Amino acid sequence: MNVQVSEILKYLGYSGQKLEPAFLAEIDAAIEKVRSIARPKHVYRLFELTSLDSLLQGQDIKHHVKGAEKVLLMAATLGNEVDFFIRQLQNSDVKQAAIIDAAASSTIEAYLDGLEESLRAEYLLKGLFLSARFSPGYGDFPLSVQQDFLTLLDAHRRIGLSLGKSGIMSPLKSVTCVMVLTKQAASLATDSCSICKLRESCTLRRRGLRCK
C-alpha cells in the first residue's frame, strides 16, 4: 500500500506550516505502525443495475451508474486491531492517536486504490472499463443505505464488517463504495467538490486543497 504523507497531512489539517523533521519522523513511524497491525480485508460483488434500484438512492449516484453494464459493490476494512490501538492511544497520547488515526484513514484509501487498480487492469483484458469509486455520503447518496449495502455483500460474515445502532461502521477504518463497468471508456474523475454538502464551508477548499 502506497500511503502518501501528503494525504495524512490533509487529515491532520496541515495548511502550509513548517514541518519539523521530528514530526515527519512521527508520521513515517505511524505509517509503519498501521501497516504492522492492520489486517486489511475486502469483499465485492457484481450486480445488474436493475437489481439495485432500492439501494442506489439520489441523483448523484444515478448519474454515476448511468450506462453501466454491471455495478460493482465493494467493502473494505483495516480490521479491529487498528481501532483498538487508536482507542488505547487516546487515553495516553492524544497527539499520537491523531497521527495514527490519520495514517489509518490514508491506509484504507491506499488499500482501495490498489484494489481498484488491479480490478481495472483485470476487466480491461475483458474489454470493460471500471469507473472510479463512489461511496455512500458523497453528494446526495445517503449513508442510510449502508445496512442494505453490507447485507448484499454479506460483509459481516465475510470480512467482519457491520453497522452499529448509531449508523457507524465497525471497524471504523472501513469503506464501502460503488464502481461500474462499462463497454466504453469514460472519465474516471469524480468532481467530489461539486457534489459535496460541505463545499461552501470546506477549509481544505479554501486552502486550494481537495480531500479526494
What does this protein structure show overall?
The chain is α+β, with helices and mostly antiparallel strands and 212 residues long. The chain has helices at residues 5-11, 21-37, 59-65, 80-90, 94-124, 146-153, 155-159, 192-195, 203-206; strands at residues 41-47, 70-77, 129-130, 162-163, 169-170, 174-182. The chain has one domain: NADH Oxidase. The radius of gyration is 18 Å and the shape is globular. Residues 188-192 and 197-210 have low confidence and may be disordered.
Main attributes?
four-stranded antiparallel β-sheet; 212 residues; NADH Oxidase; two-stranded antiparallel ribbon; alpha+beta
Contiguous runs where pLDDT drops below 50 for at least 5 residues = 188-192, 197-210
Distance between the termini: 17 Å
Report the order of strands and helices: HHEHEHHEHHEEEHH
Protein structure class: alpha+beta
